[in-house]
């Protein structure tokens, strides 16, 4: 059997800086930060009172209000981004239609969440405590569990192929894309709807991260709170949303005349085996994931033109990720374009890999490196070319996305310009 190549034929985004791919990318390129005071609840008693909330989201644009009431917000976000991605790929919203251009049993879904339906869980815990067990919703479990992003998308569009979720904290989105890549490579599916979704800007989610002292406390200046690689960074800023890709086997995409946005050429996944929250101090796990992805791609480090770094704006991540890049790229680490778009978007946790993969693909499409905003004071431990504050025009043939998650998860996906 000839090698099956995997391409991207569609994408969809929902974020604090735009509710579609065009607006999301325009905000990244122009460094328009989407962070601000939390409005979902009274956060005045919390150490961190800022976040990146999705704004002006109209769920009835993708489903009825009755349907939406049966889904946690993270599933609603996933459904909205998936609808945009399917449309961009030229695929019908319902693959069961008689004139569908694809075999729906060969279309899979792997859309995941790092935390899942935390908002629903919190609401139902209050109902249990205040009103008793009989008042807990029968929809609690299907609304709460994180695999229901995939489940609801599959049910909605009729995708009957592989259907599952992956939970690897902040590496979730990239792991979901990478594993979907392999599903197509090994002929388990022709198309995969994949990525990540998150909606945990709720009291318990914010309180938990506050107790870890992992988030920025620049409450009086949210637009400058997320500052990846800056010496004065003081933690990440939580955000939310969804980033979804349509991956497709190349010949299948060509037969139906689909527009090809990029090719997926490599994927790496490793474990630090070090600590539940801290990355390995020598960057070893992240470095091995990058090396694995390069090996599967069959390319040298010098062939990578852009790295969208995990770059969370935490003290340890940014320092250790810099070490990992140096370990893999050697002297070329100082020449490759690097940036973290989390200065603009904040950290969307399980959705980060999907959104940042879209950033990689758009960078290839447009020849633009999106900036790392809020970079004011250089950190000697983070001394790479992190594209400070202003986007840069550059020919980008190959882009690499990295994401790291609590538990020592490392995920890397490599995208390349499709050239036939």
Description:
- This protein is α+β, with helices and mostly antiparallel strands and 420 residues long.
- It folds into 2 domains: 7-255, Peroxisomal Thiolase, Chain A, domain 1 (3-Layer(aba) Sandwich), CATH 3.40.47; 266-416, Thiolase/Chalcone synthase (Peroxisomal Thiolase, Chain A, domain 1), CATH 3.40.47.
- It has helices at 21-30, 65-68, 73-88, 118-131, 140-144, 148-157, 172-185, 203-211, 250-255, 284-297, 315-329, 342-345, 352-366, and strands spanning 6-14, 36-37, 50-51, 107-112, 191-198, 241-249, 262-271, 306-308, 337-339, 368-369, 392-393, 398-405, 409-416.
- It is globular, with a radius of gyration of 20 Å.
- The model has no long low-confidence stretch (mean pLDDT 97).
Major sheet summary line: 9 strands, mixed
Spell the H/E element sequence: EHEEHHEHHHHEHEHEHEHEHHEEEE
Supply the number of structural domains.
Answer: 2
Shape: globular
Q: Residue ranges: pLDDT <50 for 5 or more in a row? A: none
Report the mean per-residue pLDDT as an integer. Answer: 97
**Widest sheet, order of strands:** 4-5-6-1-7-13-12-8-9
CATH class of the largest domain: Alpha Beta
Indicate the radius of gyration in whole angstroms: 20 Å
């Amino acid at each position: 059997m000839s090698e099956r190549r995997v391409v991207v034929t569609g994408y969809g985004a929902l974020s604090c800086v735009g509710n579609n791919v065009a607006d999301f990318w325009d905000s990244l390129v122009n460094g328009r930060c989407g962070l601000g005071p939390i409005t979902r609840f009274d956060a005045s008693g919390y150490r961190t009172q800022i976040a990146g909330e999705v704004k002006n989201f109209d769920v009835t644009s993708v489903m009825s209000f009755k349907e939406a009431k049966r889904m946690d917000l993270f599933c609603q976000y996933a459904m909205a981004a998936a609808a945009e991605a399917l449309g961009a790929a030229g695929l019908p919203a319902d693959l069961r239609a008689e004139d569908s251009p694809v075999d729906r049993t060969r279309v899979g879904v792997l859309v995941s969440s790092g935390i899942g339906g935390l908002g629903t869980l919190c609401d139902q815990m209050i109902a249990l405590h205040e009103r008793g067990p009989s008042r807990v919703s029968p929809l609690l479990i299907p609304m709460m569990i994180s695999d229901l992003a995939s489940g609801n998308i599959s049910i909605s569009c009729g995708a009957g192929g592989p259907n599952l979720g992956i939970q690897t904290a902040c590496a979730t989105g990239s792991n979901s894309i990478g594993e979907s890549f392999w599903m197509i490579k090994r002929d388990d599916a022709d198309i995969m709807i994949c990525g990540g979704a998150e909606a945990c800007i709720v009291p318990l989610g914010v309180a938990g991260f506050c107790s870890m002292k992992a988030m920025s406390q620049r409450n009086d200046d949210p637009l400058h709170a997320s500052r990846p690689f800056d010496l004065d960074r003081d933690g990440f800023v939580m955000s939310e949303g969804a980033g979804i890709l349509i991956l497709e086997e190349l010949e299948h995409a060509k037969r139906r005349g689909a527009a090809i946005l990029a090719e997926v050429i490599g994927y790496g996944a490793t474990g630090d085996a070090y600590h539940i929250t801290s990355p390995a101090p020598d960057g070893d796990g992240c470095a091995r994931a990058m090396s694995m992805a390069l090996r599967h791609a069959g390319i040298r480090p010098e062939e990578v033109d852009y790295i969208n770094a995990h770059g969370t704006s935490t003290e340890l991540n940014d320092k250790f990720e810099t070490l990992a890049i140096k370990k893999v790229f050697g002297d070329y680490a100082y020449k490759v374009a690097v940036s973290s778009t989390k200065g603009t978007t904040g950290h969307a946790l399980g959705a980060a890999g999907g959104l940042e993969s879209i950033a990689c693909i758009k960078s290839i499409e447009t020849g633009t490196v999106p900036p790392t905003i809020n970079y004011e004071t250089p950190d000697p431990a983070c001394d790479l070319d992190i594209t400070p504050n202003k986007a840069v025009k550059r020919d980008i043939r190959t882009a690499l996305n990295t994401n790291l998650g609590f538990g020592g998860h490392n995920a890397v996906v490599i995208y390349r310009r499709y050239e036939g």
